[in-house]
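Supplementary material to the annual report.
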Amino acid sequence: MNTSAAATPEPTTAETAFERPNYLNAVYGVRSWLLTRDHKRIAILYLISVTIFFALGSLMAALVRLELLTPEGDLMGPDTYNRVFTMHGIIMVFFFLIPAIPAVLGNFLVPLMIGAKDLAMPKLNLASWYVYNIGAAFTLWAIFNGGVDTGWTFYTPFSTNYSNTYVVSTALGIFITGFSTIFTGLNFIVTIHRMRAPGLTWFRLPLFIWSTYATSLIVVLGTPVIAITLLLVGAERLLHLGVFDPKLGGDPVLFQHLFWFYSHPAVYIMILPAMGVISELVAAFARKRVFGYKFVAFASVGIAVLGFLVWGHHMFVAGESVYAATIFSVLSMLVAVPSAIKVFNWTATLYEGSISYETPMLYALGFIGLFTIGGLTGVMLATLGIDVHVHDTYFIVAHFHYIMVGGTIMAYLGGLHYWWPKISGKLYPNFLSRLSALLVFVGFNLTFAPQFVLGYLGMPRRYWSYPPEFQVLNVLSTAGASILGVGYMLPLFYFIWSMRYGRKSGDNPWGAVGLEWDTTSPPPTENFYTMPVVTQGPYEYNREEVHNRLTQEAPLG
Amino acid sequence: MAEHVTSRKVYFLVFAALIVLTVVTWLVAQVDLGWANDVVALTIAVTKAVLVLLFFMHVRTSTRMTILTATAGFFWLVILIGLTLADYLTRGSSWLPVPGK
Amino acid sequence: MNPQLPLFPESASALSGEVDLLFSIWCVISVFFSALIAGLILYFMTRYRRRHPEDVGANERAAIWLEVGWSVIPLAIMLAMFAWGTRVFFRIYRPPKDAVQFSAIGKQWMWKVQHPGGQREINTLHVPVNQPIRVTLASEDVIHSFYIPAFRVKQDAVPGRETSIWFQATKPGTYHLFCAEYCGTEHSRMIGWVIVMEPQDYENWLAGGATGKSMVASGAELFQSLACVTCHRAGNAGDTGRVARGPALEGLYNRQVKLADGRTIIADDNYIRESILTPTAKIVAGWEPVMPTFQGQVSEEQLTELIAYIRSLGPAGSAPAGGGQP
Amino acid sequence: MASSPLAHGAHHHPALAHQFDTMEQQKESSTLGMWLFLVTEIMFFGGLFLTYVVYRSRFPAAFLLASNSLNVLLGGINTAVLIGSSLTMALAIWAAQVNWRKGIVIFLLATIGLGSTFLVIKGFEYHDKFVEHHVPGPNFNFVEENPNVHIRQIAARDPNLGRHASIFFSLYFIMTGLHATHMVIGIAVLIVMVVLSWKGKYDARYYNPLEMTGLYWHFVDIVWIFLFPLLYLLGAHAAR
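Predicted assembly:
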């Protein structure tokens, strides 16, 4: 993506990067942040909110793992444990994994990567952050008043008739936060369609834009269905408008259909942006075009579409008809093919590349390995014969943690490390960041690999106390969780540290190719000094001017 | 920005058609045709909806992108209802012996 | 495996072997592909590591056959495993004809198990070895899930509906019984044991244990006390001059029944259960919808006993089978 | 709907937002944005239509009798009122396109009037339902107090008739209630539009927000076009 217009007023040496006005020092004061319409500042606001909720969710996870150290529940009562694991699920799914990459990295990078001054609807973007916080306020209020004990899935008739916890206020919190995701998704689709730089055709778009676009399709098409489902649960609890009540003839399995129609595409909302980040990282650190660009791009859209046809595989033993289970099982096999295509294409990209082992690349390679295991165990679960045995056991818990923690969080951290110089203009300590990547990888595997074994042994999920023979594996898992916790703490500290004391990174520390790297780091409020014109496809490393620039600036790694 | 302006006459024609169709669907509903009642009611409702979409919402004169978005919306609704009914219709009836469920 | 650290569950039912085989083949495939990916990554990382800061990667040559290859081959493997998995699934959910009827009712935080002979147990299930057993599940409050890991079977007990599962224990022993669907505070306490015994020990246990009347016998008793017999008489008007006002029920179970509105349905458990609770739902062709409802007059256990009795009624003419299966 | 008129260079129309290059791009972006929002609304109501389809297939008799007790006349009038309000909304946009500023205000006020009429009629219906104890909840009573002898006969044989009817009424109140809420929001937006049109903000060169309000209003009309036959006409043929 070479751009003739990359010539900024004066040469971009590291020192002068800070004197020139950029989006951080353009305006000061709390009002300038709380009422900003700049997509970059809104991304930073989201970064703060999302990190707070990640910390809260991780705290709940730590409590769960501590509780499971011993077979008899002796750290807390069964009620407390049920609320803790429910809150772990709700906070992680709705308040961290779904907004994280789109709202933080997507908000910051989409306009930069397509050469636009800002998103199509900046005011809607700011509204999205406020709506997220209002929804979060309801949920936090519920947590501090005792939380909810229905599991993040809110299955009826337990959530409607038998739970006397704060179900309605938590459901309302998720309902409102759902709108913040819809606003962001809607904003991205309109921006990507209508505000690309001249010459930037669809097949010259970076793959991160393709996957953010596909994610936004799922958000717009799926989120309203969980909104109406939670509304129905609220209506049944508050107004006795019993639609799922078996005593009135209601069918709890219908709730599961409505819930999983959104919640399965939601797991693709969580993984697709991560795949986009990995495509960028692999291309940047192998300095090579992604192998089979069109296949990877269409694989994202394919996942978005097929993702809507497979939700029934969550209900194989829930009373669904045997024939519907067969239909959903074969469709679930189909949806795994695009993911396989992506993994093979990333691996093929490394062939004849010039690979460096910067922290983002360590996270990316970790992602590919763990996502492969997550994906393969997922296909095992889609096989009917096995799912009957392992449904609702720790095998399922391990599978989706391999995808969400091994996949989405690894990619989120990799993306943060890769674009941190662009966001803050500073570099983070090299050794500590590689150590954090290693700790996360080791800690993660030690936490969740034993849970596969526990799952096949038959230990059910959401158990406060379990039979003694499962204890050794649970202790291993808790040990892994502590290493993982340390691995996540490190970036929090050295990122904040780097804001103040980090070395200045210059405009393009990795020597990467991309519209977002053609502007200064941190970029000006209007993103580009002169609007870029695009004449090349993405990831064109093998060119004359790129070579000169690399030799001249001698980038890292 | 003087792109296509739909004339008043067209709007009144569409309005009349909608009113007529409402009366028709009301009349047809008075007669017990068994399951045919639903088919007729739905086709009339869909025609009325298409009339509103094309003329009142200017889909007829808008970009391909808008048409694609509208059809995608209704198509996903069909996925939601269709695949869920795949479960309800095969839960056990005479023509489909269901083992044990 | 030492009991402190089991790594693989016991395989104690007719189907558990095949489920384990299906799972093991998938594990082999997964290990192969994971090793392939990880190996390629490690090799490429060392072979093409960046030697000079300004090195760039070579332009790749598009390879359509490669792309098609790694789409079609995984799909083929997955479809094959799907077919095998579905075959196992249908065998898990199609009980053999000679299966013995048990019933388990999930209630917030206990399993109430009932033997065909009427014996009742809480959270434990004594079963004879090598005998196919069909457990019909019902729930009195929220969704529970009847799960026996050693037999590789699980089925949700959905309130308002009757679901069922079958298994055939092949090894005597004591196996875990779990509730797998989250159901509230004591979800993790709603567990118990399945005790598989030799047939002889099972008989002794049956004899020794609380041998209440058999389900079929108490069903027959109910059939009289609730005056069902006044309409559903064995043999029609001929012998008593009065016209029977309800269809004969002999040999009804699992037979095609033609309904008033033209549909034909199979008289399975759900049909009998529904006809007792809401008679007008499926009226038999040629009969008046005069049957009153028994909703609220018949408890869950009595309903199961009535259904067991109707199930046990052989073809017309043979005396109603009082004894029923063991 | 980023329509804040930022003064941005002389030759630009005052209503062009800074991140857009041309008015055309801004109009197409807001139209696409609005249609995407309507897709979320389709899926939002779609969940309810699915619930309706599933439960009607499970309890056809109860749904038929329950639907029979609805006032089809009021429903029919409401449908005509709403179609009328769609007409006036379309004419408001037509008035903007032909630069007839007073016409915009007239037609918008007509739309608000018709919309309010719809809500008033809906209020009467809800009141009737409340009086007849057909609102699901503690004092829901469809069978015992029902003047229709026919219903009591059927109920004698099917005790669940009352319960299954309560599911129909739950769906009726949720669907029409959600639709009425969307009407209230639509009327609020229309009032803002009237104020801005009165100040002369919209003319042939810039009437984007009007177009967006029109799209929203027509969509709410389409939802009612489907609700009317499904809820009201379902039992019309059954003996009263």
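The mean pLDDT of chain D is 88.
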